[in-house]
Amino acid sequence: MKLFRIRGGVHPKENKHLTEDKPISPLPLFFYYHIPLQQHIGAPAEPEVVVGDRVLKGQLIASARGMISANIHAPTSGTITAIGPYIAPHASGLQGRTITLEADGKDEWAELPAPMDWQNAKPVEISKRVRECGVVGMGGATFPSSVKLNLGGRYELDTLVLNGSECEPYLTCDDRLMQEQADEVIEGILIMAKSLGVGKAYIGIEKNKPDAIEKMTEAAKEYPGITVVALPTRYPMGSEKHLVQTLTGKETPARGLTADIGVVVHNVATAKAVYDAVSKGVPLIERIVTVSGRAIKTPRNLKVLVGTIIEDLIDFCGGYTEPPQQILSGGPMMGQPIRSTSIPLVKGANGVLALNEEDIKQDDQMPCIRCASCVAACPCGLVPLEMSAHIRADDLEGAVKLGLQDCISCGSCSYTCPSRIPLVQTFNYAKGKLTETQRTQHRQEETKRLAEARTIRMEKEAKAKREAMMRKKAAMAAKRKKSAS
Amino acid sequence: MKQLPLVAGPFIHKGNTVQKTMLLVILALVPATAYGIYLFGLPALYLFATTIAACVLIEMACLKLAGKKVKPFIFDGSAVLTGWLLAMTLPPWAPWWIGVVGAILAIAIGKHVFGGLGQNLFNPAMVARVALLISFPVEMTKFTHPTPLFSEKSPDAAAATDVTFGQASTIDGVSSASTLGHIKTEVSLGHSAQDLIANGFDLITQSLGNVPGSLGETSAISILIGGLFLLAMRVISWHIPLSMIVGVGLFAQIFHTIDPSKYAGADVHILGGATLLGAFFIATDLVTSPVSKTAQIIFGFAIGVLVYIIRTWGGYPEGMAFAVLLMNAVTPLLDRYIKPRVYGRDRKGTPLEFGEKKS
Lengths: 485, 359
Known about the structure:
The complex is a heterodimer. Chain A is 35% helix and 18% strand. Chain A has helices spanning 123-132, 145-149, 173-180, 182-196, 210-220, 240-248, 268-280, 310-316, 357-360, 373-377, 384-392, 396-401, 412-416, 423-484; strands at 24-26, 32-36, 46-47, 54-55, 60-63, 72-73, 78-87, 95-103, 159-164, 200-206, 226-231, 263-267, 286-292, 300-305, 326-329, 336-337, 351-355. The radius of gyration of chain A is 27 Å and the shape is globular. Chain B has one domain. Chain B has helices at residues 18-40, 42-66, 70-74, 78-88, 96-111, 124-135, 137-140, 157-165, 179-188, 193-200, 203-208, 220-232, 239-258, 266-271, 275-282, 293-313, 320-337; strands at 143-144, 175-176. Chain B is globular. The interface between A and B is large, with 74 and 50 residues.
């Protein structure tokens, strides 16, 4: 198949050898699970249980609030011991509302919804089931999948793209999933294609995963609509807009969605979760996680229940070989630093990395020497060195004009900068600052609008009152006149 | 600089540093430098060492004055590289103070006045070279015939000390003109460039570098080796060197075809003078060249054309330094108006069109 070239990108040292041949191993049950109510993009879920309730594995414990939100289910059977603030899986290290579950060790299943006859189901029924089962994008973006499976109603779609590129170094969880559960993934893809109403699906896998390519090609053999495509190994191949361009040659318009050009992208692990939800009625309560990095004694791939604390994972992998320089959730390019190993593992966490000196290769920051490595590396055609200079001079407007909002924070620029300038950090700071400004502005405008509306309403009311009074007076006068005559 | 803990990735790095980048450039300069020192003997070595030492000392002084940390910047290799490049463009038997004055011009005025590493608008080595050429025209145009080390003509330590650190007048008689200088003088006297070249310009000698000229500019082959090394190590890209060589070559060939008796051909202009050193090592200076590939092609081509114009119709036989400085001044403009196309947008920055949504 003809592939299309994308701009820029880098070739980070893959370091996948640490875990790529480690089969997915299950974990024993632990005593406590901490399940955050915010594990997805959108509004946090609302608890459906109270402290002291006994819950069963797979039982709904918090339900989606609004369209962009997701249901949350109990990872195992046990008792709810707390609902309150607990350290959240976020770079800030702040606390978020979390349900704490004390496992009873029985791992007793709740009654699950019946398997669906999806081949004869309507698209809405499929996305409804996916929504019920709390499935979110498992590549890290954690966008509620049902919303993305519903796009067929609003967009002219023709292609489903499955992201199996796994371009982040170290991570091998999708690789292992495709190798070990290819049939389930393929069925998930068929369900998704059915829900979207498209007949064509591409599974994009980077060439550094030959076993996964082989297994998936084998599993997809009897479905002519599904094509497994070996992609060049280049970061950020997994960026959805770039993946779509590589496969179809079509470029997603700025500020737009891939759906605008007829394509919807889902992660392969999400396909597996959709399969579980639709074909088995099992909600999303576990995922595969790569625990790796040179500071981990035995790096491996684990099947982990959502809510397991990260320390338990690391202990299960034999602990550290040395004090890690950096602990991350996700990949080393776009993952988040972890402040405490007490944080729970969430639906979107594909990796837990403990990196040492050799992994991170830190060095002192120097001034920019305008070498333009960042310009060459940027997959979005931006000039990072200039955007950074503007932001450092507090000229956010200037940075926006240079395309700040088109930056996907992939980190290719920072990765390649010889002066070790934290470019992405600068951009994220600016984006946050802009959102904050916009929000404040929006709030002020809203307040003003409401205040004005109130004034108008009050005036109208007063006027109406006056008029009513006048009418009354006139009527009274007329009556008096009548009675007088 | 103290690093604050990062909250945004990436948490891994390619491993390159400013220091490593500078070291690679220096490494690439080694063949041409070694050949230059061999060709012009101990005086060239003395001048070379003096220039670099002066650059490093002045860098230290400037950093102290500016209140910056000395250690990280003195070891970044940029001052050594500036001194190295400057020395390569000097007449090999120039007196020591040419190197020292050049170092002051390059480091203090060319670099630190603008704010130090990465901030300078102009290539520091070329600022020094041009200022020296205008201020000391005699010393800066006195080229010697090659006197290879270990040959009879090569000055011994004492004589070499006298050449570099003593009275320059004692070494009269060996001075000569560079190839380009020679052609320019003779053509202006009414002699045919064609004959001159037929008699004196030998492509092979010129490529090897066994001719009078600046310390590190004469050997096209050794410069090319270094240049190709830089390309292979991806310190530079092909855009500037190639477009610049094309610029010089194209113009030279056009005029040579029109009137061969007055204008030397592309071979003379590409292999002679500072063309190759300029193309691979000077115009490609990271700090002072544009950042986008299209702008780099324009930048390189314009330097090539300017070099040819200055050499042919200007007052100096060599125009590399002037051409580079002129285009350095245009770099901010090029960077402002020529940018890569942003993903999902057209050249003007408007989002691309797409199909209508279902109603």
